[in-house]
Amino acid sequence: MNDCCYNPAEKMLTTDEAIQFLLERSHTTALTEMVNTLDALGRVLAQPITSTLNVPPLDNSAMDGYVTRYSDLNAEGETSLTISQRIAAGYVGDKLEEGTAARIFTGAPIPEGADTVIMQEQCQQQDDKVIISGRVAKGDHIRRAGEDITEGNEVMSVGQKLRPQDLGLIASVGVAEINVFKKITVAIFSTGDELLMPGDPVEPGKIYNSNRYTLTGLLQKAGCDIIDLGCIEDDLDATVDAMQKAAEQADVIMTTGGVSVGEEDYIKLAIDKLGSVEMWRVAMKPGKPVAFGEVNKTPFIGLPGNPVSVFVTFCLFARPVLRTMQGCNDILPRKFKVTAGFDWPRKGPRREFVRGQLVMDEHGQQHAQTYSSHSSGVLTSTTWAQGLIEIPENTSFEKGAVLNWLDFSELFS
Ligand code: AMP
Ligand code: MG
User: Fold this and answer.
1) What is the pLDDT of residues 304-330, one digit of tens each?
2) Model confidence over 125-144: pLDDT tens digits?
3) Which of 196, 211, 254 to mutate to test the pocket of ligand 1 (most atoms within 8 A of CB)?
4) Which of 19, 99, 181, 260 measures 20 to 30 Å from 310, CA to CA?
5) C-alpha distances in angstroms, 305 versus 222, 227, 291, 352?
6) Rounded Cα gap, residues 396 and 352, in angstroms
7) What 8-state DSSP symbol labels residue 110?
């Protein structure tokens, strides 16, 4: 992150420019390790998984019932067949004798010669015979070999952040250990003389440090290891010291607060001493002051101090950087379309990310509502919300307008 492209005095970046800027400067931490597939939830695959087998391996029954040759069934009325064998899941039966049926259970391989399974609800067992009635079609209730996965196919690609169903699929092709990218370590600290830690007694003029908790949760959700350097006072030497420690220990440094250019904001001054700061103002609400840079080649992301701004700027800017570093192939969150359940009469020059809830009206139509306060200090808006509604720059609209929706489930994955 060495070349400085933007002079903050001249221009505010749009949100898209800021994301672009960041992605151009982010790289995958290419280190990998082998882990047990069972321990790989949330990890990012570093080597593709190619199946060495068909899944399922053999044609097998999709039902509990009886299996026979279709040609041995009467076209009309009932058919009575001798039960020649019993095949449970996990066992391979013998070749099916002509004019007989085999008792078969879900998942059991279809015996050679047989081609049709009749579910047990259509069958009646009488001693060693089964009486089959009702409609049967040739090939019924058979799951074909390779129907799910074909031998030689790549079932999972590099960059996949592994979800529960991904682990299941990898296991289904018999792979117990996989190669994943190493977790990235993020060093964090909060800044501000006004901050108390939860558990400390209340003091006049002080507030509790909520950002530390929000940021920790966001990073845990993102699958990062965290080095927490605590709360740093508003002082240049202390900030430089913390920044240096962070750069020595972590893959990324992330801070909250102190990022503006006020007299009590020391982040920029500290990084100016140690490395470079790239960018300062993004035309968005909440969260205008955001800093990106590097300290001894360690990327640095300085989030604002206001609690809602921390939350939103993390989701928009820090998350894509982290995902790139983690080796993910899916960097930006998917945006869904929602209908506004509110008017937005005033146009603003900055893109807004207001906290939203999806509600159903009396006609069963879903629309997005916003919280009563848009203030970047009102953290309650984020706990009330299920996602962010994106309101474009210089736009006003009435109820019913279609807007982008960033769902929290997407942002926390
Ligand atoms: P700053 O960017 O440092 O000027 O902070 C902006 C606002 O966010 C101020 O009202 C701070 O008190 C508040 N703030 C900063 N850090 C935190 C924190 N860790 N927890 C809660 N509020 C904070
Ligand atoms: Mg401050």
Assistant:
1) 999 999 999 999 999 999 999 999 999
2) 999 999 999 999 999 999 99
3) 211
4) 181
5) 20, 19, 12, 18
6) 12
7) P
**How far is CA 343 from each of CA 278, 336, 347, 370, 402, rounded to the nearest angstrom?**
37, 19, 11, 10, 12
Same-domain check for residues 256 and 153 = no
Q: Does the pLDDT at position 279 exceed 70?
A: no
- Ion ligand 2 neighbours, Cβ < 5 Å: 192, 257-258, 305
**Residue 373 within any structural domain of the chain:** yes
Locate tokens 């259509």: which residue? 122
CATH code of residue 9:
3.40.980.10
Is the predicted pLDDT of residue 6 greater than 50, yes or no?
no
pTM of the model: 0.92
pLDDT of residue 289: 87
- Which two tokens mark 23? 């992605």
**Beta carbon of 194 within 6 Å of any ligand 1 atom:** yes
CB 182 within 8 A of CB 247: no
Total domains in the fold of the chain: 4
Whose C-alpha lies nearest to ligand 1, atom 16?
Answer: 305
Residue that is last in its domain, among 135, 160, 181: 181
* Confidence band, pLDDT 50/70/90 cuts, at residue 7: very low
- Same domain for 353 and 317, yes or no, is no
Q: Please determine, for residue 9, whether its predicted confidence score (pLDDT) is greater than 80.
A: no
